[in-house]
């Protein structure tokens, strides 16, 4: 039947167009790859792309391609990291067997330990300021310092008779 052949050919062209667009070609370039003769390939490509069936097929093909790329990338990253860790472990073991290999072993073990989170670099904390402390803590610190000062020899000369007494805050 001639009608079936035309429908099959049209379906084949739609599929090819969808694959070309999903692969990253513009509508115009995808239409040109069909070897179709249109006066305006840009208009014809846009018309094909507006067909709901073709739009759905482009989305499906794009989704599949994206998923495949994500899977491959994830496998490569995992394998690469796994491979590096294994090689570091092997280097450490081999270096421990060789005279003078302790520096190599130490470095490999250091890198492995960092990856596993065994070593943490100390976090630089800014020096504590008196303004950061609550009033109660400051008063307690003053009371403790005053008590120590009173117990030291010569404290009477430093404190003086007119110095205000501090009360301890609990």
What does this entry look like structurally?
It is built from seven helices and no strands. The chain folds into three domains: 49 residues, no CATH class; 53 residues; 46 residues, no CATH class. The model has no long low-confidence stretch (mean pLDDT 83). It is an all-alpha fold and 170 residues long. α1 crosses α4 and α4 runs antiparallel to α5. It starts with a helix and ends in an 11-residue tail after the last helix.
Concise description?
Helices cover 70% and strands 0% of the residues. It has 170 residues and is mainly alpha-helical.
Secondary-structure element string: HHHHHHH
Number of helices: 7
Contiguous low-pLDDT stretches (5 residues minimum) are: none
Structural class: mainly alpha
Q: How far do the termini sit from each other?
A: 101 Å
The count of strands amounts to 0
Mean pLDDT: 83
In the residues, how many domains can be counted? Answer: 3
Integer-rounded radius of gyration: 39 Å
Characterize the biggest β-sheet: none
What is the percent of helical residues?
Answer: over 70%
How is the quaternary structure best described? single chain
Give the overall shape, derived from the CA principal axes.
Answer: elongated
Strand content: under 5%
């Amino acid at each position: 039947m001639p009608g079936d052949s035309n429908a099959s050919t049209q379906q084949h062209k739609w599929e090819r167009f969808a694959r070309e667009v999903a692969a990253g070609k513009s509508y115009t370039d995808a239409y040109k790859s069909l070897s179709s003769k249109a006066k305006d390939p840009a208009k014809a490509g846009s018309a094909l792309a507006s067909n709901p069936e073709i739009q759905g097929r482009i989305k499906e093909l794009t989704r599949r391609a994206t998923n495949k790329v994500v899977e491959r990338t994830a496998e490569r990253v995992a394998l690469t990291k796994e491979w590096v860790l294994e090689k570091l472990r092997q280097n450490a073991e081999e270096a421990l067997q060789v005279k003078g290999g302790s520096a190599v072993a130490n470095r490999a073990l250091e890198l492995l330990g960092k990856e596993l989170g065994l070593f943490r670099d100390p976090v630089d904390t800014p020096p504590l300021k008196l303004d950061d402390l609550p009033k109660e803590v400051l008063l307690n610190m003053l009371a403790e310092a005053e008590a120590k000062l009173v117990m030291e020899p010569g404290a009477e000369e430093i404190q003086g008779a007119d110095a205000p007494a501090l009360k301890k805050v609990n």
